[in-house]
Amino acid sequence: MTIGNITFDQYPVFLAPMEDVTDIAFRLMCKRFGADMVYTEFVSADALIRHVNKTTAKLEVAEEERPVAIQIYGKEVDSVTEAARICEAAHPDIIDLNFGCPVKKVAGKGAGAGMLRNPELMLEITRSVVRAVHVPVTVKTRLGWDDDHRIIVDLAERLQDCGIAALTIHGRTRAQMYTGEADWTLIGAVKNNPHMHIPIIGNGDITSAEQCRQAFNDYGVDAVMVGRGSIGCPWIFREIKHYLNTGQLLPPESFDWYLEVLRKQITDSIDRLDERRGILHIRRHLAVTPLFKGIPNFKPVRVRMLRAETVEELWEIIRTIPEMPLQPV
Fold it and tell me: Around 25, how many Cα atoms within 13 Å sit in the side-chain half-sphere?
């Protein structure tokens, strides 16, 4: 599979763009575990052209994480186009347009998945950005606004006509947010549409190596994107790639091996930010990691861990966690 001039091996697996998750430290870790491409947190076009420091900082990319995509969102042609030019100056391999974020503060204002209610504007923005930059432009979107407007099959063709290099589809409508199960049947319908010739990347509910293989086998997608399944579990890419390459599940590591990965995430987060902000940032990973699943009476420990305010306190709590028997996580 190729996107622009980027060639991927068979069965590529990507790290999804996630706000407050896919910072550079986490992207690099997922890359080391086998992610074939990674995406930045999404970048507000309006904030970027106003040179908001926190937003501009999201453009930082490292050579070791390539290929890497910068994802932007907005609701006006001129601002998104100008933001794309600014992003191009940061030298990403791809610029991705977010037409899929469902949260109210984004979609409710007409950006992200809100664009699914105004596909003509979505197409106008896409055409303008494709013309304005020299790197490949891709799009990430959803099936439609709600079950009565699942427009993705027709929309995919029209986005392709705008000149995008690939399309990622999350198998939910905006109305679903992140509830229910992702519907991959329409993703497969887009992929199997004889009029489509760009790569189709499937996204939604991939939390295991077996699910990833099934997505490739059943729906024929060119790549699979892993989102929430990687939070607190960056080693999922290692497990997936091993299974895709060998057909065998990767034997589990020791409990302390996984715990050391989380320790590295904590250290990286603090080093990148500072102690207070780093601990706040890593709480999302500690809260949902599957590593602690099955530990008896763990809830009070989890609460203490998520309330820790210093790294010394966090290390002390982690030292009290009993080592569990070998098990898949």
Answer: 20
Of 101, 162, 212, 233, the active-site residue reads 101
Count of domains observed in the chain: 2
Residue 328: per-residue pLDDT: 45
Q: For residues 80 and 76, what is the distance between their CA atoms, to the nearest angstrom? A: 6
Q: Could you tell me which residues are beta bridge partners of residue 39? A: 69
Query: Confidence band (pLDDT; 50, 70, 90) for 326?
Result: very low
* 3-state secondary structure at position 307: helix
Measured at the CA of 290, the angle between CA 307 and CA 43, to 5 degrees, comes to 70
Question: What is the pTM (predicted TM-score) of this model?
Answer: 0.94
Domain span holding position 280: 255-319
Size (the chain), residues: 329
- 219 with 278, same domain? no
Would you say residue 327 has pLDDT above 60?
no
Task: Say whether 223 sits in a helix, a strand or coil.
Answer: strand
Instruction: Determine contact, residues 158/151, Cβ cutoff 8 Å.
Output: no
Residue environment code for 139-155, b if the CB has 16+ CB neighbours within 10 A, otherwise e: bbbbbbbeeeebbbbeb
Tokens of 95: 């610029």
101 an active-site residue?
yes
Residues 158 and 210 in one domain: yes
What is the rounded CA–CA span in Å between residue 329 and residue 327? 6
Looking at this protein, which amino acid is placed at residue 257?
W
Percentage with pLDDT > 70 across the chain = 98
CA distances from 179 to 106, 144, 165, 202, 308 (A): 18, 15, 29, 17, 30
Phi, psi of 31 (to 5 degrees): -60, -45
